[in-house]
């Protein structure tokens, strides 16, 4: 699981911790995920770049798949 969300806690909520937390409920996720990125410090610019790249590739793949299923050329979907 890649937790890319970052939220700042109030000093009262943070207690002795850093005050930065992710979006994932770590205690629940650790029971089902084989690996979890820590927040802060788990996700850097390369991870973000590859997540964006993979998202774009998935969108292109889906657009081409939809074009094939509907009998259209993939370029026709983008008009």
Number of helical segments?
Answer: 4
N- to C-terminal separation? 36 Å
Briefly note the structural class of the backbone. mainly alpha
Largest β-sheet summary? 2 strands, antiparallel
The helicity comes to 40-55%
Give the overall shape, derived from the CA principal axes: elongated
Q: Tell me the β content.
A: 5-15%
Strand order of the largest sheet: 1-2
Determine Rg (CA atoms, Å): 19 Å
- Tell me the count of domains: 2
Average pLDDT taken over every residue = 78
Q: Would you report the number of β strands? A: 2
Q: Could you list the spans in which at least 5 consecutive residues all have pLDDT below 50? A: none
Q: Assembly state here?
A: single chain
Order of helices and strands: EHEHHH
Q: What does this molecule look like?
A:
The chain has helices at residues 11-14, 26-29, 45-70, 74-77, and strands at 7-8, 20-21. It is mostly helical. It folds into two domains: 1-42, no CATH class; 44-79. It has a two-stranded antiparallel ribbon. The radius of gyration is 19 Å and the shape is elongated.
Main features:
single chain; mainly alpha; 2 strands; two-stranded antiparallel sheet; 5% strand; 79 residues; 48% helix; 2 domains; elongated
What's this model, at a glance?
The protein is mainly alpha-helical. The chain contains four helices and two strands, in the order E-H-E-H-H-H.
Give the topology.
Elements: E1 7-8, H1 11-14, E2 20-21, H2 26-29, H3 45-70, H4 74-77
Antiparallel strand pairs: 1-2
